[in-house]
Design a protein that fits this description.
It contains 11 helices and 13 strands. By secondary structure, the protein is of the alpha/beta class. It has a domain of 222 residues: Rossmann fold (3-Layer(aba) Sandwich). A 7-stranded parallel beta sheet has the order 3-2-1-4-5-6-11, with helices on both faces. The chain has a two-stranded parallel sheet with strand order 7-10. Strand 1, helix 1 and strand 2 form a beta-alpha-beta unit. Helix 5 packs parallel to helix 6. The protein is globular, with a radius of gyration of 19 Å. 46% of the residues are buried.
Length: 319
């Protein structure tokens, strides 16, 4: 019996795979290792995962239905965690068809093949982006999310609807995760923490949108993994969960902590808010706590230091 993790070379997929592998669970990794960001970072993650004897990897795209079916024929897959997706709110504005392929066609392929092979639990990544410009805080899974403000968010809402349909028609246990601004070691280079750290070290100016009046529910990667793991162990008919830190942090305070642990000051360029962006995110995790026993344990002071320590070591930088 094995767990299939799509997007295994990605940020969350890597950390989840490593956690489960360390517990002796057989993991089948699946990823197309695309160049949305530096593939070298993805390869570095894979190198670590491949050091485990209980890890098998397939470099394929979810849109390749035949390749996906072959993986299921080669292994007895009991559970599926679909983390593969085209990420990024801003990128979806200029590259819409990348989202149609990966997040719609790819998602339909993996959930359909999972249904055909009678997996016992199908869990998948949604996004806090589905909340759009909701004014009510904190964001609750009970809130209406019918008004996305980016194509990325629209595709993630579509994933939730597809999962709901499969759960209803085929009794496939499905749980989706609305992740809130995930960060940590081996994180994505297109995310603010990575960009700010790189530019501050280089002495370059960082662009801060909405004139710095941004708030985010920053969630450390270990807390994200604990939520997914709990869900993998708890098959439910059809659920959507917020996985966040249950705190809304001021972006300028976040930058201040980066400066603190780098020992350098940032040159800041304040700008207006970008299309598709929202001024604040804040997760209501009551449903996640009640049904999965989830509660985050890492505050941003600790989490940012862990990221900075990793970054300096990984890129061999003397701060």
């Amino acid at each position: 019996m094995a767990i299939l993790i799509t997007g295994a070379a990605g940020f969350i997929g890597f950390h989840l795979s490593q956690k489960l592998l360390s517990e002796g669970i057989k993991i089948i990794g699946y990823d197309n290792v695309n160049d949305y960001y530096d593939p070298k970072l993805k390869e570095a993650r894979l190198k670590i995962l491949k050091s485990y004897k209980n890890f098998t990897f397939y470099k394929n795209d979810l849109c390749d239905l035949a390749a996906l079916e072959k993986v299921f024929s080669n292994h007895k897959i009991n559970k599926v965690c679909n983390l593969a997706a085209q990420a990024g709110v801003r990128y979806s504005i200029t590259n819409p068809f990348a989202y149609q392929k990966s997040n719609i066609e790819g998602f339909l392929n993996i959930i359909e093949v999972s249904k055909r092979n009678n997996v016992s639990n199908f869990v998948y990544a949604s996004s806090s982006s589905v909340y759009g410009n909701n004014k009510k805080l904190p964001f609750s899974v009970k809130d209406n999310v019918d008004h996305p403000i980016s194509l990325y968010a629209a595709t993630k809402k579509a994933n939730e609807l597809i999962a709901h349909t499969y759960s209803h028609l085929h009794n496939l246990p499905c749980s989706g995760f609305r992740f809130f601004t995930v960060y940590g070691p081996y994180g994505r280079p297109d995310m603010a923490l990575f960009i700010f750290t790189k530019k501050i070290i280089a002495g370059e100016t960082i662009d801060v949108y909405n004139y710095g009046k941004m708030r985010r529910d920053f969630t450390y990667i270990d807390d994200i993994v604990s939520g997914i793991t709990a869900s993998l162990n708890t098959p439910l008919k059809n659920e959507v969960f917020n996985i966040g830190n249950h705190k809304s942090e001021n972006l300028m305070d976040f930058i201040g902590l980066i400066e603190k642990y780098l020992g350098r000051k940032a040159n800041i360029n304040l700008m207006e808010i970008q299309p598709g962006d929202v001024p604040e995110t804040y997760a209501d995790i009551e449903n996640t706590t009640n049904k999965l026993g989830y509660y985050p344990t890492t505050n941003i002071d600790v989490g940012i230091k862990k990221f900075i320590d990793w970054y300096l070591n990984y890129y061999n930088i003397n701060s």
